[in-house]
Structure formats: structure tokens, C-alpha cells
């Protein structure tokens, strides 16, 4: 295939609320090759989920508005598609796994129907064929196919998330967006589910966007990493580039938050301060109030992007020219 | 399931016992003397005393209650003072009309209230929502007897297309059905709206949308299935309330049903009919609640599982 | 009904947070209520009606019970804006005076229901166990009889009078207050400050009054507002059936009932009293809805 599978450019999303306008996503850009995995990292409220929902065309509206940008998927700008055309993409070519398996399955519909309905909608299968395929999918996520007729409440949390994974993979999509798929699970289950996702991703050769706040998860499953802060991607690059040579003070801060068993615990240092109020973002670099290396320039001018062999950083420490006023 | 049903049926017994105590006390606290009522003003003191003896009114109250209860369990609610017919017969003669009305009223309430609530929620914060919500609030607030009279004025007097009384053709049912169902309709509409707004925000609805299935399927399979659960609860509760409404409806449209039987009996101090009628109403309410419980199990597999577990 | 008071993001703004700190919770409720246009409209109508009821002798153009056979069944005119009834009494004056009875019955009946229901609920919730069980089963019994039928039976037994009407409507409303108060009593019961009060030897009655009651004021106020609306409807229905306020007293339900026989020739006799009931009940319901939303922003979108 020519070019990347997914290319997001200059994406801007706002939420209009009574209290004011929330700038949730500000000029996000990234691309993803077929079959690869991108880790979208950041604290909650950084705009990761909104970015994902924009790709899916599911930004809640009102209050959400995509003000500009493009999302090119397999040569089509998804943002210019009609709702009807978008329905053919959703669940078929791009599917999404949500955070909480306890709430993302409908309690009054059997898991089988919840898996097979995407097949019926997109692959023109009859109910019976879809049922057979859905049972196969259940087996793929290591759940006995005969549990097809059971309801979500009859499954444990980890099993429910596997049902959700089976749902997402049912139509063999080109891209899966997984929004913190393991956060709500027990630690012991997390590793199992992650391993399952990785092996199924290989088997189906699906590209994936893994949204997480856990750099450990990123290290295990991703090829590329994009770090988000206050609606912007502040640093992006290959796994090696980010893990071996992180540059942005925020990314460095995130790494310092990971406990390292081999080193002394005293090295864990949380990033001071809180995410800025999205209603009232700071001027200049959004990270400057919390940045240990803040300069005068950072307070007034939004930094430009420095591209160093695919390793892109948005920080005045590295970018000389190219500053964007805003 | 069956065992659960039987268990719930057993719960009904203390409630009905309670109702019998309450209504027996209310009726026997009444100042009037049934014997005097029966014999009319021309009766002599001796005749009254004899009749009191005969009716068992000279016995202590708890003995009278005991007799009433044992007979009631045998299906004998005594005889009407006015007509001397068995109360059970009087009730059964009037019950079909009332049941028809109650069921029609409920169908009307659901048929109008549910779509109204769904529409309001789908168009939240638009003028459609405002209109539906206001309509529901009005339906909840206007006295149903007034609605009845205004309908009658409009459809029987100004544009005479519907009969104002009687009980023989389907046309007779239209206005009483509206009068009886309007408040329940309003309650169902309000409940449906708020329940929809709650369900629409749920993660599983977003999951369903993310699958790219049609909006119609999202609505019918994923939203409505969950919306109906609280709506059925409120409809069940209101069914009892609505059953009371037959008193008004039957009075306005001269329908010979249970409601009018009770009102007439109270006016005539015909206490066995009052007692039996109220007890019968309570029985109906209890049975409806039981049916609603069973309906839950159909709508919500989690509750069904609980029923199975609670053997 | 509108999202004017967008409570969703209220706490996130620094400015409002500071302001909130300085204000009492009731001030906050009032602030939210004021923003709800519908609720303010409802409240204004209720206040207006109370004023009309209080000033009835001043506002009414005629004596509501002054009969005038020559002027019977006159349609609306400049002299009698709402017409006259079959005894020639001025309908406008009767409706104005009727507001007194309706509001009086509504408030007193709710008072009876709320006080007794509240006491039962507080006792049940606070002591729990068998007593609670017994009280709640009694409420179930009351709920098993359709409200209006219960009220009819009570009025039938006690006889028709204003007081009996209020008692009947009040009793039929008991369960809803008992439930509300019991629910908050249950949540408060296990709280540490109640345990602390008990430890220092406060009497049960005092704990209930000082700790449990303030805690359930919000739901009680909402229930009472909606309850007054219900009570006015029930009372009017009973009067309509001839089991409530008796003629010649000017009461909307019984006016409707007596106007019924003139439906064909003098429809205004039934139209205006019904309209009056509808307006009061609608206003109370809108106000009650708004109050509930203001007291519990979590319930809103």
C-alpha cells in the first residue's frame, strides 16, 4: 500500500459548554502505517479520547465541534464523509475498544448478538452465518463458543474485555483504536488481555492506536509513540527514539514517574502541578507552568515542531526558528 | 421462576390482610348504622335492634372482623344492603367494564407516552423537546374530570361525533380511555425521557455506535431495551393510581363499573359493598405489581438471574 | 427543560468555586433556581395565587354566595367577566374565593401527610429492625389501595367536611413522605456524627430532629411542592364526586360538579373552575420540578 494507513493532520476539536469553550484537541498531527501500533500517551484530559472519537466520527455533538483538520484513512478524508458513509467505516474498517468493560457492553443483549451485529451490518452475513462467525471470534479470545447466548453479567471483567476485543476484531478491521483497554482491569488480568491483543493484532495484521497513560504498556506493544499534553502532541517518534532519547521535559517527567525495580525508589519524581484548566489554557507552551526548564520565551510563544529523522519535538529547548505564534 | 412467582404471591397475602383490616376499620368507624339505613326512617326501634342482631352488628368488632375474614377467604364478601345481592356477584358483574377501561387506558398511556418521551429525548433541548415535555406536564397537571367534560363538550356537543354516555359501541370507549390514561401517559412520557437521556450517555450505546450499525438498531436494540426497565416500574406503580381513576371516568361517562359501584355504595352507606370493592381493588393492584415483576425478568436478564438464584 | 444552568462544568471554574465558598447551600439553590425560567414562572404563579387567596375579599367584585335568580346562567359579560351560575352568583368572585379553599386544603393535607409520614419514616429509618419493617409494611398496605379510593372510603366513613377531606387526602399521601424521610434516615444512621451524638448521650428524639431532619429537608420540600399539587387535584376530584366540599361553598371541584348539568348551555361554568385548577397544579408542578433540579444538580444532564 502506498503511504500511511492513517494520517491525521491539524486536528482541532472544541467543546462548547456553558462555562466556555474547551479546546480539547489543538492541531494534532500523526500518521500510522498499516499493521503498526501507535501508543498515544498522556494524562487524563490530554485529549487522547477526543482524538480517537474524532477518527471514529463519534465526537459527541453537542457540545463537541471539529473545527478543522483532516483524518485520512486509506486515502479517504473521514471528516468529509457523510454519516451514512462513516457507518460503513465504523466497526468494519476501524473499530474501537473502550476503557471499561463493565459498562461498554449492553446488559440486556447477549454477548453473541453484540458481536454478530457488526458482521450482519457490514459483511452481509445472514443471522446464522454471523452467529457461526461470532462463535469463532469468541473462541479466538479464549471464550467457549457456546457461551454465545449468555449475557454480560455472566462474565468476569477480564472476560468481558475479551468479548469487547472479539467485537472489535469481528470484521477484521484495518485499524483498531484501544482506549485504555486494560486500565479498569485487575493487574493480573491486564497482562493476559494485553498479550491476547498483541497476538491477535499479529494474526489479523491490524494497525492499532493504543491509548494509555502507562508507558509500560507502550513499551510492550507499540512501535511508535505520541505524547499528548493539553490537546497537543508534544513529542512523537519511534519506540526507540522516545524510550532511548526522550527530549520533551514532559516526556522526561513521565518517564521519571515509572518506578524502576532495579534502581532506588527515591528516583520516582512526579511532575509537579496539575493539567491546565482546558477552559483557560496558558499562553505560550501549555506545559510552561509545570516545566522545570521553563524560559521566558515559553511563556509567550507556542513552540514550533523540530523534526529530527521522524522524532518530532514541540519545545523551545530544541526548536530555534519555526515558532508559531498563538 | 415459578417458585419465585409463588413466593411473590405469598407476599401479597399480608398486604391484602392489612388492606382488609384498614378497610374494615374505616367502614366500621362510620357514624351511620347500617340497620337504620336498611330499614329506612319509618322503622321502629325494635325492628332496628332485631336487624342489628341478625346482621351480627351487636358482636364485638374483632369477632365481626373474624367472621368477615373467614367468609372472604371462602369467596363470600357478604350481601349488599341495598340490593341484597351477594357482593361478589355485584363486583363480578361490574368488573369487565372496569377492566376493559383500565387496560385501554394503559394501552393509550403507553402508545402515546412512550413515543412522546423518546422523541423529547432524541431532540433534547430543542423546541420539540420543550413542546413534548410541556405537553406531558400539562397532562400530569390537569384534572382528568375536567378533561372528560371538555372532551364531551367538544366531541359530543359541539361536533357530535362521540356518544357522551353508555357502554355499547367502541365509540363509547374513546373519551373514557383518554380521561383514564392521560395522567399515566404524562408520567410515562416524563419517565421515558429522563430514562432515555440517561441511557443515551451510557458507554454501551457508544460501543454500539462504534460498530457502525444502523441508528434504528442502536435505538431499538441497545437504547429501548434499557429504557423500558424503569418505565415499566413507573407504569406498574401508576396502574394502581390509574385504577382509582375509574371512579371519576365511570361517573362522568355513566359507565356501570366498579368505581361507580363503590361511590354509590359509600353514598348509600352500603358497607359490605364498600369493603368488598376496596379489597378487590387492592387485589387487582397486587396482581398488576406481580405481573410487572415478572415483566422485569423478561426485560432484564440480570433480574432473571436473581430470580433463578433466589430459589 | 433548558440547559441554562449548565451545572455540568460549574465546579471546574475557579471563579465560581470561590464564590460558592462564601455562600450557604440554600443560596446556591436559589441561584440555580433563579436561572430556571420555567421554575421562576411557576413560582410567580403560585405566589400570585396566594396573594389572590389572601386578598379575596378585596379582589372579588361580588359576594361569592350572593344569589340573584334574575341573573342566573348569564354568559361572560363586562359585568360578570366569567358569567353567573344557576343561582346567579358571580363566577369570578367564586373562583377567587375558591383559590382559598384549594390552597388551604392542599397545604394542610400535605402538612398532615408530611408530618405524620415524616415521623413514621424517621422512626422506621432510625430504629430499623422490626419496627421499621412493620411501618413500611403498613405503608405498602396504604399503597395497595388506589389513593383516591382510599380517600373516598375515609371521607365516606368520617362524613363530608373540610377537615375530613384534608385528613383523607393527607392519609393517602402518607407513604411518599415516609419513604423519603426513611431513606435519608437510613443513610444518616450509620454516620459518625450521629454515633458521636449518641455517645455524648443525646436523646433519640433530639438526634432525629437535629441530624436526620435537616438531612432530608431537600427531598421533603420537593415532595411537598409536588404533593400540594396532587392534594389539590385529589381534593377537587373528591368534591367533584360530591364527597368533598359541599355546595354552596365556593370550591373549584364542586363548582365544576354543579356546572356539569349545564354543560350544553353554560359551558363556562365548567370551563373556568377546571382552568383554575389546571393552572395552579401546573404551576406547582413546574415549580416543584425546578426545585428538584436546583436541589440536586446531579439529577440533571
TrEMBL record, chain B:
Primary location group: membrane
Location in or out of the cell: Cell membrane
Transmembrane region(s): 9-30, 99-122, 134-161, 173-192, 223-241, 278-299
The keyword Nucleotidyltransferase belongs to this UniProt entry's keyword annotation: no
Keywords, in A-Z order: Cell membrane, Ion transport, Membrane, Nickel, Transmembrane, Transmembrane helix, Transport
Signal peptide interval: none
GO molecular function: nickel cation transmembrane transporter activity
Cross-referenced InterPro entries: BPD_transp_1_N, MetI-like, MetI-like_sf, Opp2B
Topology class, membrane: Multi-pass membrane protein
ABC transmembrane type-1 domain segment(s): 95-296
One Gene Ontology cellular component annotation held by this UniProt entry: plasma membrane
Keyword Membrane on entry: yes
UniProt-listed NCBIfam families: Opp2B
Family as reported in the entry's similarity comment: Belongs to the binding-protein-dependent transport system permease family. OppBC subfamily.
Protein name, as recorded: Glutathione transport system permease protein GsiC
Source organism: bioreactor metagenome
Amino acid at each position: 500500500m502506498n503511504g500511511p494507513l492513517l494520517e491525521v493532520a491539524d486536528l482541532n476539536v472544541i467543546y462548547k459548554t456553558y462555562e466556555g469553550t474547551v479546546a480539547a484537541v489543538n492541531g494534532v498531527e500523526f500518521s500510522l502505517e498499516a499493521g503498526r501500533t501507535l501508543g498515544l500517551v498522556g494524562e487524563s484530559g490530554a485529549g487522547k479520547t477526543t482524538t480517537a472519537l474524532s477518527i471514529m466520527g463519534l465526537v459527541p455533538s453537542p457540545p463537541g465541534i471539529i473545527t478543522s483538520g483532516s483524518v485520512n484513512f486509506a486515502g479517504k478524508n473521514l471528516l468529509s464523509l457523510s454519516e451514512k458513509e462513516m457507518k460503513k467505516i465504523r466497526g468494519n474498517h476501524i473499530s474501537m475498544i473502550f476503557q471499561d468493560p463493565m459498562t461498554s457492553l449492553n446488559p440486556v443483549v447477549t454477548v453473541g448478538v453484540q458481536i454478530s451485529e457488526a458482521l450482519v451490518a457490514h459483511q452481509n452475513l445472514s443471522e446464522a452465518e454471523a452467529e457461526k462467525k461470532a462463535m469463532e471470534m469468541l473462541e479466538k479470545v479464549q471464550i467457549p463458543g457456546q457461551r454465545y447466548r449468555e449475557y454480560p453479567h455472566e462474565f468476569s471483567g477480564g472476560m468481558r474485555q475479551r468479548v469487547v476485543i472479539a467485537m472489535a476484531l469481528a470484521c477484521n478491521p484495518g485499524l483498531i483504536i484501544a482506549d485504555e483497554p486494560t486500565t479498569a482491569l485487575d493487574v493480573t488480568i491486564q497482562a493476559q488481555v494485553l498479550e491476547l491483543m498483541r497476538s491477535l493484532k499479529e494474526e489479523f495484521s491490524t494497525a492499532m492506536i493504543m491509548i494509555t497513560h502507562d508507558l509500560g504498556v507502550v513499551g510492550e506493544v507499540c512501535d511508535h509513540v505520541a505524547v499528548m499534553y493539553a490537546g497537543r502532541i508534544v513529542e512523537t517518534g519511534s519506540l526507540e527514539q522516545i524510550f532511548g532519547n526522550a527530549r520533551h521535559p514532559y516526556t522526561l517527567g513521565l518517564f521519571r514517574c515509572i518506578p524502576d525495580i532495579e534502581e532506588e525508589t527515591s528516583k520516582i519524581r512526579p511532575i509537579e502541578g496539575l493539567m491546565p484548566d482546558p477552559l483557560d489554557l496558558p499562553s505560550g507552551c501549555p506545559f510552561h507552568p509545570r516545566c522545570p526548564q521553563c524560559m521566558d520565551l515559553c511563556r509567550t510563544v507556542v513552540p514550533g515542531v523540530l523534526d529530527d529523522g521522524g522524532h518530532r519535538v514541540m519545545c523551545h529547548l530544541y526548536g530555534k526558528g519555526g515558532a508559531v505564534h498563538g | 421462576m415459578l417458585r419465585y412467582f409463588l413466593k411473590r404471591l405469598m407476599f401479597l397475602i399480608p398486604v391484602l390482610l392489612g388492606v382488609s383490616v384498614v378497610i374494615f376499620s374505616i367502614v366500621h368507624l362510620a357514624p351511620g348504622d347500617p340497620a337504620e339505613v336498611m330499614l329506612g326512617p319509618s322503622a321502629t326501634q325494635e325492628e332496628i335492634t332485631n336487624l342489628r342482631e341478625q346482621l351480627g352488628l351487636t358482636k364485638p368488632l374483632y369477632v365481626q372482623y373474624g367472621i368477615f375474614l373467614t367468609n372472604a377467604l371462602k369467596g363470600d364478601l357478604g350481601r349488599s344492603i341495598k340490593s341484597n345481592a351477594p357482593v361478589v356477584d355485584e363486583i363480578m358483574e361490574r368488573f369487565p367494564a372496569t377492566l376493559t377501561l383500565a387496560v385501554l387506558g394503559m394501552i393509550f398511556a403507553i402508545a402515546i407516552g412512550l413515543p412522546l418521551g423518546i422523541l423529547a429525548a432524541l431532540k433534547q433541548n430543542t423546541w420539540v423537546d420543550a413542546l413534548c415535555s410541556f405537553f406531558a406536564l400539562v397532562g400530569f397537571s390537569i384534572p382528568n374530570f375536567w378533561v372528560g367534560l371538555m372532551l364531551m363538550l367538544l366531541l359530543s356537543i359541539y361536533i357530535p361525533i362521540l356518544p357522551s354516555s353508555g357502554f355499547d359501541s367502541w365509540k363509547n370507549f374513546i373519551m373514557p380511555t383518554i380521561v383514564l390514561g392521560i395522567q399515566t401517559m404524562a408520567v410515562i412520557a416524563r419517565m421515558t425521557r429522563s430514562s432515555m437521556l440517561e441511557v443515551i450517555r451510557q458507554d454501551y450505546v457508544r460501543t454500539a455506535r462504534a460498530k457502525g450499525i444502523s441508528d434504528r438498531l442502536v435505538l431499538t436494540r441497545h437504547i429501548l431495551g434499557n429504557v423500558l426497565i424503569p418505565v415499566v416500574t413507573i407504569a406498574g406503580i401508576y396502574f394502581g393510581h390509574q385504577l382509582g381513576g375509574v371512579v371519576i371516568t365511570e361517573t362522568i361517562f355513566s359507565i356501570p363499573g366498579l368505581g361507580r359501584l363503590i361511590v354509590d355504595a359509600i353514598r348509600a352507606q352500603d358497607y359490605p359493598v364498600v369493603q368488598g370493592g376496596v379489597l378487590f381493588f387492592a387485589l387487582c393492584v397486587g396482581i398488576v405489581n406481580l405481573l410487572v415483576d415478572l415483566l422485569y425478568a423478561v426485560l432484564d436478564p440480570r433480574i432473571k438471574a436473581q430470580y433463578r438464584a433466589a430459589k | 427543560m433548558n440547559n441554562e444552568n449548565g451545572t455540568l462544568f460549574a465546579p471546574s471554574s475557579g471563579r465560581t468555586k470561590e464564590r460558592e465558598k462564601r455562600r450557604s447551600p440554600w443560596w446556591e439553590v436559589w441561584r440555580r433556581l433563579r436561572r430556571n425560567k420555567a421554575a421562576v414562572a411557576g413560582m410567580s404563579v403560585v405566589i400570585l395565587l396566594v396573594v389572590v387567596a389572601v386578598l379575596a375579599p378585596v379582589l372579588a367584585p361580588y359576594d361569592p354566595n350572593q344569589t340573584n335568580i334574575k341573573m342566573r346562567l348569564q354568559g361572560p359579560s363586562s359585568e360578570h367577566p366569567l358569567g353567573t351560575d344557576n343561582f346567579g352568583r358571580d363566577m369570578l368572585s367564586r373562583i377567587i374565593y375558591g383559590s382559598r379553599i384549594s390552597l388551604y386544603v392542599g397545604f394542610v393535607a400535605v402538612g398532615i401527610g408530611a408530618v405524620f409520614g415524616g415521623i413514621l419514616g424517621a422512626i422506621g429509618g432510625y430504629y430499623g429492625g422490626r419496627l421499621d419493617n412493620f411501618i413500611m409494611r403498613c405503608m405498602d398496605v396504604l399503597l395497595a389501595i388506589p389513593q383516591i379510593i382510599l380517600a373516598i372510603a375515609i371521607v365516606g366513613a368520617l362524613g363530608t367536611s373540610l377537615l375530613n377531606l384534608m385528613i383523607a387526602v393527607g392519609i393517602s399521601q402518607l407513604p411518599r413522605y415516609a419513604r423519603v424521610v426513611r431513606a435519608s434516615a437510613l443513610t444518616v444512621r450509620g454516620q459518625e456524627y450521629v454515633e458521636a451524638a449518641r455517645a455524648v448521650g443525646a436523646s433519640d428524639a433530639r438526634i432525629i430532629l437535629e441530624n436526620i431532619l435537616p438531612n432530608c429537608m431537600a427531598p421533603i420540600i420537593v415532595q411537598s411542592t409536588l404533593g400540594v399539587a396532587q392534594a389539590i387535584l385529589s381534593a377537587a376530584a373528591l368534591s367533584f364526586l360530591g364527597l368533598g366540599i359541599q355546595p354552596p361553598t365556593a370550591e373549584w371541584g364542586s363548582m365544576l360538579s354543579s356546572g356539569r348539568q349545564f354543560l350544553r348551555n353554560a359551558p363556562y361554568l365548567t370551563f373556568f373552575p377546571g382552568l383554575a385548577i389546571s393552572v395552579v397544579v401546573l404551576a406547582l408542578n413546574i415549580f416543584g420540578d425546578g426545585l428538584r433540579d436546583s436541589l440536586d444538580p446531579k439529577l440533571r444532564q
